[in-house]
Design a protein that fits this description.
Layout (H helix, E strand, L loop, with lengths): L3 H6 L13 E5 L16 H15 L4 E5 L19 H8 L3 E4 L6 H5 L5 E5 L13 H8 L4 E4 L21 E4 L1 H14 L6 E5 L4 H11 L5 E4 L1 H10 L14 H14 L2 E3 L3 E5 L8 E5 L8 E5 L1 H12 L3 E5 L12 H12 L3 E4 L2 H9 L8 E2 L4 H7 L5 H4 L8
The structure holds adenosine-5'-diphosphate (ADP) and magnesium ion.
Length: 405
């Protein structure tokens, strides 16, 4: 049986087609984090798209149109969600002019007027209500401004939207960009022929969406290391009272099932033995380290404790492939960042193949100063997790297949 990853790797790559004289539409993921003043805090996603854009410029595409979403606007044309915000950074990174297109239907003729090396950036595609509905009308309109569709938005490839999926149905040539191919290759290395033991380190706060996934990955990993708010749910399931901690009462049963299935499959599970607790997350004055069994009334577990860091680090050091998604605590707050940063150090120091995915986790690895010490930093959070689950991502599904040699 072909695995989900192998079938995604079988898509046609931009490398194998000729773009000269063609109007190319590239779906990129420019959904970068910005601070409250609208400053871009991390441009990794823009930089990750450059090889694909530059390839099209260098190979004489007649026009290049970039499409992306940016945040999740509830009303069209909210300036807070305008991609105009990234034009300057993109121009600096590409070292060329980028023409911002407010309404691509009005600018159709301009995009069609083939003049070499022009780069257009369309306004936030989620300003169109049809985008998230995968509306075929919008897909057709996008298709009408190009001859070639390149999907390079790995971070959005788990979405079945007009610009990530639907548009491909109406374009004669549709291929994967270099980032898509690089990401899938990195995950293939970790999942298709991993050097064992393989450890999955999970944490973070998106418990409901991630915990069900844990069941499906038990067949792929040897060790499951759990921290963050995710581990609170498991500790509660073991019968410890996590008091005011963040956990999901509705998923206690799922946690029990994960533990039972792990036991059956011989997967080793590591949970925190101690936790950092506080009664006030926003202004943490009273901060203590206690055994996981001893969380006090009114207190919240907000990070893993030093004994857990040691335990997890030893389990990590004995692994040869490590995939990490989800911070070990509320790392955005200094006092609760130690667990996450030390686990980042432990994974980085390992002589192993190491992948980190997820917006917040990648940010934590950056802040820990370890960004260069991981084998691969994925631009996809949700997308990388769905890969682990064994799904075929919609962003790959509609693309042309590579011709077999
Ligand atoms: P990613 O973006 O890497 O996929 P998530 O979005 O699932 O990760 O989780 C990140 C968030 O989890 C962070 O904002 C962090 O503050 C939060 N978090 C981690 N541990 C805890 C905890 N014990 N209690 C509450 N929030 C937590
Ligand atoms: Mg997140």
């Amino acid at each position: 049986m072909t695995s989900n990853i192998a079938s995604m790797q079988a898509v046609k790559s931009l490398r194998s087609i000729d773009v000269s004289g063609k109007k190319v539409l590239i779906r990129v993921d420019f959904n970068v984090p910005v601070d409250e003043h609208g400053n871009i805090t991390d441009d990794r996603r823009i930089r990750a798209a450059l090889p694909t854009i530059n390839h099209c410029i260098d190979n004489n595409a007649c026009s290049i149109t970039l499409v992306s979403h940016f945040g999740d606007p509830k009303t069209p044309n909210d300036p807070k969600f305008s991609l105009r915000l990234i034009v300057k950074r993109l121009e600096r990174l590409l070292q060329r002019k980028v023409e911002f297109v407010e309404n691509f239907e009005n600018s159709k003729d301009e995009i069609a007027a083939c003049s070499l090396e022009r780069v257009f950036l369309l306004e936030n595609i989620r300003f169109y209500p049809g985008e998230k509905k995968n509306d075929s009308e919008l897909s057709r309109k996008l298709a009408s401004i190009c001859d070639v569709y390149v999907n390079d938005a790995f971070g959005a490839s788990h979405r079945k939207h007009a610009s990530t999926y639907g548009v491909a149905e109406f374009v004669p040539v549709k291929v994967a960009g270099f980032l898509m191919m690089r990401e899938i290759e990195a995950f293939a290395k970790a999942l298709e022929s991993p050097v064992r033991p393989i450890a999955l380190v999970v944490g973070g706060a998106k418990i409901s969406s991630k915990i069900t996934l844990l069941k499906s990955v038990l067949g792929k990993v040897d060790k499951l290391i759990i921290g963050g708010a995710m581990s609170n749910t498991f500790l509660q399931a073991l019968g410890y009272d996590m008091k005011a901690s963040r956990f999901e009462p509705d998923f206690i049963e799922t946690a029990k099932e994960v533990l039972a299935e792990a036991k059956e499959r011989g997967v080793k599970v590591y949970l925190p033995v101690d936790v950092v607790i506080t009664d006030n997350v926003e202004s943490p004055v009273d901060v203590k380290v206690v055994p996981a069994q001893d969380v006090m009334d009114g207190y919240k577990a907000v990070d893993i404790g030093p004994a857990s860091v040691k335990l997890f680090s030893e389990a990590i050091a004995l692994s040869n492939t490590i995939i990490w998604n989800g911070p070990m605590g509320i790392f955005e707050i200094d006092k609760f960042s130690k667990g996450t940063f030390k686990i980042a150090n432990a994974i980085a120091e390992c002589y192993a193949y190491t992948i980190v995915g997820g917006g917040d986790t990648a940010d934590a690895v950056d802040r820990a100063g370890e960004a260069d010490n991981f084998s691969f930093i994925s631009t996809g959070g949700g997308a990388s997790l769905e890969l682990l689950e064994g799904k075929i991502l919609p962003g790959f599904e509609n693309l042309d297949k590579a011709e077999r040699a």
